[in-house]
Amino acid sequence: MFSSRVSSGLRTARRHIASVSPVISQGVSMSSAAPGYTYETLAITKPKEHVFQVEINRPDKLNSMNKVFWREVGEVFHQLGDDSECRAVVLSGAGRMFTAGIDLSDLTEIAGVAFGENDVARKCRALKGVIASFQASFTAPEKCVKPVIAAVHNACIGGGVDLICSADMRYCSSDAWFQVKEVEVGLAADVGTLQRLPKILGSESLVRELVFSARKMYSSEALQCGLVSRVFPDKESLLAGAVEMASMIANKSPVAVQTSKMALVHARDHSVQEGLDYVASLNMAMLQSEDVRIAAIAAMKKETPVFAKL
Fold first, then answer.
1. Is 190 one of the annotated active-site residues of the chain?
2. 240 vs 56: CA distance, rounded Å
3. Catalytic pick from 75, 85, 175, 190?
4. Which residue among the candidates 72, 83, 106, 162 is catalytic per the annotation?
């Protein structure tokens, strides 16, 4: 019975993907390619100094998330976290939409594991390993100490919502819409949406409505409820605005910015006093940074400070 429900859900999802109009743009960003970043499903560019753009680059598949993508998205944010040239990241999608969510061929493969001939203990072990690896990949943007701005245009479906919930900021174009789609294919979202979205929106009622019904949320509502902080007229202005903000962040002290991100992520999951203790422990070291002196002198002279790589 459960197998038939999953199969039915997969057929529904396939019809949805097939109904979306063809990709109208398959090129990647006009920014210069970032050396040392070679990925199959991602295009990495440097639109501005110290700003990197990570573009989901499967436009012919509506940027659906296959097994290679799940691995690479974790790898690229680990690499960016260690790259001293990077101070801020813009996450976007190539082509017509941000992402159609999980690649259905991979979902079929996972269902095959669930209904295979192994006994239940072995199937559970295999499935938990797959889920845990997906979770780690989508937690990578959150763990990356560089601020990440998700720039969403058109559709952001299923796993796309999980992914952007791990970003620090979310911008979108006016044609954007978001859908926690997992219940429509017989699943509970398991890579971050159910854990992070309630803390982003602050409304359990709204979160449960979106999760249980799988209805679409459009850009105006996303702005009103706080899922995104800015809405732009189109994809072009969206990317320009995201890069501009990333560049503004990149001009600040990397010590201050990255320490702030660490403290904010910690504070979200701990009490106020625990958060205060944590940032005190961070700043007893970070306040000794040369960046503090550079920033103070630049402020007094009304100059733009220049900070060393970190």
1. yes
2. 17
3. 190
4. 162
Q: Is 162 assigned a catalytic role? A: yes
Q: What is the DSSP letter of 251?
A: T
Closest CA to 106 of 82, 155, 71, 143: 71
Structure tokens at 294: 């550079």
Which one is catalytic: 164, 182, 186, 249?
182
Domain pair 2-250 / 254-301, same fold: no
Residues 151-174 have a mean pLDDT of 98
Mind listing the pLDDT tens digit for each residue in 176-234?
Answer: 999 999 999 888 999 999 999 999 999 999 999 999 999 999 999 999 999 999 999 99
**And the tokens for 153?**
């245009």
Specify the residue for token string 């990570």.
54
Give, as one character, the DSSP assignment of residue 184.
G
- Find the length of the chain: 310
For residues 109 and 116, give the distance between their C-alpha atoms in angstroms, rounded to a whole number: 10
CATH of region 254-301 = 1.10.12.10
Q: Are 98 and 154 in contact (CB under 8 A)?
A: yes
Regarding the domain delimited by 2-250, which CATH topology (the fold level of the hierarchy) does it fall under?
2-enoyl-CoA Hydratase; Chain A, domain 1 (3.90.226)
| Two tokens, residue 174 | 């006016």
Q: Smallest Cα–Cα separation from 26: which of 49, 63, 59, 65?
A: 59
Active site annotation includes 159: yes
Domain boundaries, the chain: 2-250, 254-301
* Residue 157 structure tokens: 């479906």
Q: At what angle do helices 104-114 and 2-19 cross, to 10 degrees?
A: 180
For residue range 222-260, list pLDDT tens digits in order: 999 999 999 999 999 999 999 999 999 999 999 999 999
Which residue among 9, 55, 93, 102 is the active-site one?
102
What does pTM read for this prediction? 0.86
Q: 3-state DSSP call for residue 33? A: strand
